[in-house]
Write a structure and sequence with these properties.
Length: 189
């Protein structure tokens, strides 16, 4: 398995396997960036670990044996500059659905359509390389960017968990968006 294999790409974005050279960017991302304010910032996560543990975690998550279809990929721009990551996961009770996540970690790439393009590519890849019937994502009511990305791609809001958490004095809802395979294929992204 060659590191840095391109999984899927477009004119502006590359979704690829991680490279050892991505490690420094990953450590930097754990310590800075606007993304941290929008990805459930109240949760304890890898960003709270010492640098050496962050490096070990990167190796475990991104450089270990890779499943087909991939569980996580690095997002790079057309010049192969790493700008974030994407993942897929599911809960046992949702065996027919994958949930996906995206983090654009380089602030200079935010608000420029990279998130929409990445999610479009990732959903194509996952539907084309699996038998899952649904792909969804969860976000919070304060994350307007993620809601716009989901809606631009035609994902439908399927559920709301109201007032799930209080953050910075505001009660937040968790929103669930999804798209089924038939509808995705009929939209011809």
């Amino acid at each position: 398995m060659k590191e840095g294999n391109v999984i899927i790409s477009s004119e502006s974005v590359i979704l690829r396997d991680a490279k050892e050279s991505d490690l420094d960017n990953y450590v930097k991302w754990m310590n800075e960036g606007e993304w941290k304010e929008f990805d459930a910032p109240w949760e304890k996560r890898i960003t709270d670990l010492p640098e050496e543990e962050i490096k070990v975690r990167f190796i475990e998550l991104y450089l270990s044996e890779r499943e087909e279809p991939r569980r996580r990929v690095i997002i790079a721009d057309k010049n192969d500059v790493p700008i974030g990551w994407m993942n897929r996961y599911n809960k046992d009770k949702y065996e027919n659905t994958w949930l996906v996540g995206i983090d654009i970690c380089e602030d200079g790439y935010l608000g420029k359509g990279y998130g929409t393009e990445c999610l479009r590519l990732w959903m194509d890849y996952l539907f084309n390389n699996s038998n899952k019937e649904n792909i969804g994502l969860k976000t919070y009511s304060f994350n307007d960017r993620m809601m716009r990305v989901a809606e631009k791609l035609g994902l439908e809001q399927r559920g709301i968990e109201p007032d799930i958490i209080e953050w910075k004095g505001e009660r937040l809802d968790r929103l669930f968006y999804s798209m089924d395979r038939v509808r995705w294929n009929s939209q011809k992204h």
